[in-house]
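Batch manifest, entry 17 of 40.
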Amino acid sequence: MQTLNYSVLLVDDDQDVLDSYKHLMDIAGLTAKALLDPTEATGYLKRDWPGVVLLDMYMPQMHGMELLEKIKQIDDRIPVIVITGHGDIPIAVDAVRKGACEFIEKPINPAELLEMLKSHLDLRRAFVEQKKQMVATIDKSLVGKSAQLEQIRHLLSQYLLLENHVVIWGESGSGR
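Output type: C-alpha cells
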C-alpha cells in the first residue's frame, strides 16, 4: 500500500470543484489528495490514518452515504465531512447517524470549511498519537511473546479506546 502523505482526502465527481478544494487546501498549507472516482477512495485510506475525508453526497459512481459506510468500516473514527448541493434535514441526520462528523450545504464558506478541517485534523492527529503511545506502553509493559500474551495485548489496545473504566480480574498469581 502507498504511503498516505496527505492529510485531506477530497472526493467529488466534479473536476472543477475538486480543483477549487485542492487550491484552497494548498493556500491553507494542507496536503490533499483529490479523487474523481469515489470507488477508489477506500484504497487511499487505512486504519489510524491521521487525516480527514471531505466527500460529495451525490456522485454517479457511488452515493456518498455508501462511501461513508465503507470508510467507517476501515476506521470508524476517521472524520468525514459530507458536502452536498441538495441537502435536507433527513439526509443530514442520516449522514450524522452513519458517522459523518459534519454536513455542509453548498455553496460553502471557504474560511469556515478550513476552520472545520483544521479542528478535525487536530483532534484526529491527537487521537492517533495518543493511541500509538498507549500501544507502545502496552508493548513495553507486557514482557513475553506467547500467543496468550499477544491476545492480551490486542484486547488491551481495543480497551484503550473505551471511554469507561475497565477492571482486570484474575486469580492470585496469574500476573494480572
